[in-house]
Amino acid sequence: MVSRPGGRRVTVRDIAAQTGVSIATVSRVLNGQDHVAPETRDLVRTAAERLRAGSPAAPGPARAPAGAVYLRCPYLLTDYFGLIVSAVAETLALHGRAVLLDAGTAAQQASVLPSLASRPGIAGAIVILPPEPGEQLAALRTRGFPLVVVDPRTPVPRDIAAVSAAHFAGARSMTAHLAGLGHRRIGVIAGPHNWLAGQARLAGHASALADAGVLHPAELTRAGEPTTEFGYRAAGELLARPVRPTALVCFNDKTAVGALAAAAERGLRVPGDLSVTGFDDIDLAQAASPALTTVRQPLAEMGRMAVSLLIRLLDRHQVDALHVELATELIVRGSTGPALGGPRHIDEVGADGSTAGGAAGGDDRVAWSKNAGCCDAADWLDPDRAVFVDGPAGVVGYLPDVAVGVGERARGAAPVHGGRGAADGSAVPCHWPSYSSWRRHQGPVSLRPRGARSSHWYMPHRPSIPRS
User: Fold this and answer.
1) How far apart are CA 301 and CA 165, in angstroms?
2) Distance, CA of 338 to CA of 183 (rounded, Å)
3) Which of 96, 279, 352, 464 has the fewest CB atoms within 10 Å of its CB?
């Protein structure tokens, strides 16, 4: 404790109430202990000196400073930001606080934070996805200015209050949903790499794929500003790859709508040929066709929680949990479905192109034969069906997204049979030197063609197969 003029002693509780940090932190600073941020140490020492020199008035509850709350959202107030801003304004009104709103993209060019603490009539601030560097936020907090960050773009100091959604968990649940539908080759249309949300969602996506035994390839990721235009361009690039993804995970609902447009332009059905997902669950997600499977962020609750934290800081209450993550929710709608290439019925193709299973064709048929000529004769095969060829010295299989070869004669085999899966170059040649090495890499589901010897196997989906 330190002495105050008039005889009353200043306690650590007084300093904690004045600064908004914990009693334990104040104690560590006064006792010269380590593990305290320099900004926090300066804040506590300044408050202690101020209280030591203060008046000998009787102790009582600290009064919250008068004034409006500065609400900074330097973006267009669309569905995403508009929901947060509306919730902040409505909740502040319940507490009798006026709002000074600074919004719009032009606000990004204004240097506001450095002088905010000295502006008259401003009691505290809530900033949403601030583009300013973290040093400016730390400087405000060092001066004792009450501040809450909503959805921080970059890491904020531990002693600055922040509210965000559980981005990692939300992205992980979405990719786990797709993996459960059989998707393994998943394209990612990500946000900027330097955004915390973008980093957390990529990590969640990779985590869910790892659980499915898949390592996400870097070439299936496109990162950029999360707009509809970027989603369209990024999806176009991913869908133009020789082996296109079976699903696209998008940073938000706007990029997902752009991806839907790119898929429609290429004649791909969603979700029949391609699954597409969003994030946020704004109104646009339900208005899309098909309606988007997405992750719901509690946007309004994020705004309300930010106000709750700020009011506690203004009232000099102790706040121990300064960084708050709110749970997200997976919302499954019509834009996701099973991946192509799942298990199907398998028939042998005879020399005349017919099958032992009876009528030729069928939406769920996969065919195999003892020579390539039989497959050539099977002109009834749907372009999306797989053709399985068994030659005298090796086995070559052609699926819509993978070509498989076993034995020396299959090495370097070009995918020339099997309809669209081979003709447009979307098949990936794979090779093993022997049948036993192939067996070791089988996926979780392997089927033996009807009437075939045990050495004939069909692998419906294995994107992590070693490539030749």
Assistant:
1) 10
2) 7
3) 96
**Measured distance CA(101)–CA(73) in Å, rounded:** 8
Judge whether 453 lies within some domain: no
Edge-first strand order for the sheet with 429-432 is: 345-348, 365-369, 387-391, 394-398, 403-406, 429-432
Q: Are 431 and 405 in contact (CB under 8 A)?
A: yes
Strands (E) across 278-418 are located at 294-296, 323-326, 329-331, 345-348, 365-369, 387-391, 394-398, 403-406
Assess if residue 463 is contained within a domain. no
Q: What CATH code is carried by the domain that includes residue 244?
A: 3.40.50.2300
Same domain, 75 and 22: no
| Opening angle at CA 324, ends 320 and 330, nearest 5 | 155
Report if residue 450 sits inside a domain. no
Angle between helices 23-30 and 38-52 (to 10 degrees): 80
Asked if residue 291 and residue 169 are part of one domain, the reply reads: yes
CA distance linking residue 37 with residue 134, whole number of Å: 14
198: which 2 tokens? 């973008």
Residues 39 and 107 reside in one and the same domain: no
Instruction: Give me the percent of the chain exceeding a pLDDT of 90.
Output: 43
Q: Give the list of residues 6+ apart from residue 322 with CB closer than 8 angstroms, or none.
A: 158, 159, 160, 161, 162, 309
Measured CA to CA, the distance from residue 208 to residue 216 in angstroms comes to 10
Does residue 32 sit in the same domain as residue 137?
A: no
Question: pLDDT (tens digit, 9 = 90+) per residue, 311-369?
Answer: 999 988 877 778 899 999 999 999 999 997 543 333 444 445 454 433 333 333 334 44
- Count how many Cα atoms sit within 13 Å of the Cα of residue 413 in the half-sphere of its side chain: 30
Report helix, strand or coil for 406. strand
Q: Do 277 and 395 lie in a common domain?
A: no
> For residue 47, what is the domain's CATH number?
1.10.260.40
Whether residue 254 is found in the same domain as residue 366 = no
Residue type (1 letter), 410: A
State the average pLDDT over residues 282-298: 96
Q: In sequence order, what are the beta bridge partners of 366?
A: 346
For helices 299-314 and 79-94, angle between their N-to-C axes, nearest 10 degrees: 40
User: How far is Cα 16 from Cα 316, in angstroms, rounded to an integer?
Assistant: 8
Q: What is the pTM of this model?
A: 0.62
In a domain, 98, yes or no: yes
Domain count across the chain:
3
Give dist(CA 368, CA 396) in Å, integer: 10
What distance in Å separates the CA atoms of residue 258 and residue 247, rounded to the nearest whole number? 14
Tokens of 264: 């429609």
Q: Are 231 and 224 in contact (CB under 8 A)?
A: no
Range of the domain at 23: 2-52
Q: Can you read off the two tokens belonging to residue 375?
A: 């497959």
